[in-house]
What we know:
The protein has helices at about 35-45, 50-65, 155-160, 200, 245-260, and strands at about 20-30, 65-75, 80-90, 110-115, 115-125, 135-145, 165-175, 175, 185, 205-210, 215-225. The chain has about 270 residues and is α+β, with helices and mostly antiparallel strands. It has a single domain (about 20-260), classed as 4-Layer Sandwich (S-adenosylmethionine decarboxylase), CATH 3.60.90.10. The protein has a 9-stranded mixed sheet with strand order 2-3-4-5-6-1-7-11-10. Strands 8-9 form a two-stranded antiparallel ribbon. The longest helix is centred in the C-terminal third of the chain and has 20 residues, at about 245-260. It is globular and about 70 Å long. The protein starts with 17 loop residues before the first strand and ends in a 7-residue tail after the last helix.
Amino acid sequence: MEIKPLKKLKLYGFNNLTKTLSFNMYDICYAKSPEQRQAYIEYIDEEYNADRLASILTHVASLIGAHVLNIAKQDYDPQGASVTMLISEEGDTSAETDALNTTEPVSKAVVAHLDKSHITVHTYPESHPNKGISTFRADIDVSTCGKISPLTALNYLVANFSSDIAIIDYRVRGFTRNLDGKKFFIDHKIYSIQNYLAKEKRELYQMIDVNVYQENIFHTKMILKDFDLDNYLFDMDKKELPPSERKRIKQRLKREMAEIFYGKNIPKV
Length: 269
């Protein structure tokens, strides 16, 4: 969806509003043995490295109308990576369109600095000590100042991470003035983050909104509607498992996902 500016808003000086889009994206899987869990961590560390994160963030910068000035990146031993980008706002902000149909893979940890703005990505693979559950979390922040908006990159980021669960926050801070000196605390229309998600994405997820309109704070939680056990098994097939074990694993995965989605531990019945 196009980001629609407020009609007839002519500013005095620079647009001082800060717009921040934040994600927690989760991928959940079941790795049966300690060796499989270790292999999952190694897979994530290889698949989500600094080079791929740098590629993703470079495209994000392009989508929101920012220019990458410099990139520094580092992969760490035994695991992890980081990337730093220096970015400035471009004069042409015509990139305010849906950013869809891109499915490049992603990785480890990135910090990108824009002119008065920033982009950061950090990844956190981990495993349950004895239940076989493994999770991969990516935290992403896109914060911009001026006419450019991080909402432009929303669909691109959701498509690239293909997460089981996504928790998204959008907030507009500060104020800007029109030619008469009147303060404006937001420069575009928004009722929900969902408004900026492509229809095909919205149909895949169950979503909940918690919005504080008077504070320009918008919060959306997303969890996949469909559940196919094969999509959650690492290095195995559900056909290899007896029905009783399939049921047990499915219950563990569902419980893990529900606890992450609702942000609390669920008591055992």
